[in-house]
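Weekly sync notes, structure subgroup
Attendees: PM, AL, DS (notes)

Item 1: joint prediction request from the bench team. They want all two components modeled as one assembly rather than separately. Inputs as received:
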Amino acid sequence: MAIGYCNKKGTHFVAKNLNIALEKGKLVTLLGKNGIGKSTLLRTLSKTQYKLEGEIRINNKKLYDIDNVSLSRSMSLVLTEKIPESQLSVYELVALGRQPYTNWLGRLSKEDLIKIEQALKLVNISDLGDRKNYELSDGQLQKVMIARALAQDTDIIILDEPTAHLDLHHKIEVFKILQRLVLETQKTIIISTHEVNLALQLADELWLMTPNKFVTGTIDTLIENQDLQNLFPEDQVRFNTDSKQFILKK
Amino acid sequence: MATKKTYKYSAAVLLFLLLATWLININLGSVSIPFKEIINIITGTTAENENWKYIILNYRIPKSITAILVGSGLGISGLLMQTLFRNPLAGPFVLGISSGASLGVAILILGSGFLGTYLGGFLLSNWSVTVAASLGSFMVLSVVLIAIKKIRNTMSILIIGLMFGSISAAIINVLSYFSSAELLQQFIFWSFGSLGNLTWNELIIFASIISISILLLLGSIKPLNGLLLGENYAISMGINLKKTRNLVLIVTSLMTGVITAFSGPIAFIGLAVPHLTKLLFDTSDHKILIPTVALTGAILMLICDTIAQVPNSEYTLPINAITSLFGAPIVIWLLIRKQKLTM
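Output from the run, pasted for the record:
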């Protein structure tokens, strides 16, 4: 699989020659500086933005040959954008995740109801069902959005910076939930994040984006190849290979 | 978990209110007719007074049905545009579609002065006004659709709509300046809005168009619910955004155009009714909102018409003034009470 992609004006390559292969049941984190193109990559992978060159395949099917409804049954998203104001309750919001499966009126079948309950339970928000979405804290809302993606019942979930704006406690909680989901449901989860140290502890695989190259692999191979050490400019942070953490330079 | 509220009770109350306001509406008018007689006339039993029968069957009932159609049609148009544009201020008026209809009628009525009496008189039949209004609103709609293709930002589309309103108003001003007092009066009377001008034949056509439009819009309930999370989420849930957007825009414009054509530009219902309904029902689900907005719009329109009629007097106030007098305070009250309007 090779992807090239761009911004709108002309063909401005944000990154070229990306080669990624992804297995089922992995928690993948995408790391890189602000503005390096993490969101662009995720948007391209999720077909929200058009690729420039190359090909993306899901289960050996070309992404651009898959129609939107079929795609929505195999890939769900958690985006950084704020949802518009509405009167939606948590339950209704999560239930919207069932749209790819419901009839033209959006009527929920028995199976839909079960999937919604499961999704709520998986992220521990069963007690929030009747609350309105605007009453929730950022942390709760993020869990609701994850539950909505779960209700969509897809093999792949892509999350763009799911832990931005959250405190440390909720950051860890969200990561733990995602890790547990991968173990329990064998889903493939791709997260872009700035929580480098958390990602290093919890992810199965890392995708590193730097201006010059794009590398993928497990933490150990990336350390061996000196890739993690080069993720950020050397002057401020340093990668400690023993603790597998980034530390501030004094 | 009590997650699925039932709205049967509230719907029953709304239906009852609709029936009540409908009866009050046909009960009150410039001529006082005993309530018992009205029931007799509606149920088809013998009427004492042929004049009363004529007034009820050929004036008051068509007028009340027009009010119901106008109220529900404008309410639903407003609701769908508010969701589509994710803007609580969107509505048929804000998008310039009603202004387009006004412009069409202005060109027809005021422009007929330049064409001489014979052709002018031919053009001014009831139907030509309807056609002109529909053409006008369709023209604005096409431009809005082209703008949508080029511009992704929905806020810009709204502003373009507002600009169209200004342009239409300006052209109407210029036309008015050069028109005779007689034609001007005719146009101004049209712009006051009127529910009572429809014959049964026209009413049947009007009712069919509104019903077909609402039936078509039922297909947009699910995608519109998905759009409550924003366009990107909606697409990721398999919604065909383009199709939904075109369906909603074309059908609501058609509806607004036809309503404006038959009853003049009626202000505020399209904006105020959806908010009022959302406040009463506390939901964003279009499956519930579409029928309740239709009912609330119909009820409000019947009340406005009853007031405009000034019972037992020979005056009829412009319906357009009454809806604004009613609508504006409701929106202000909502803003103060809720601090913000939601979709």
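Discussion: The domain at 8-338 of chain B is CATH 1.10.3470.10 (ABC transporter involved in vitamin B12 uptake, BtuC).
Action: AL to compare against the crosslinking data before next sync.
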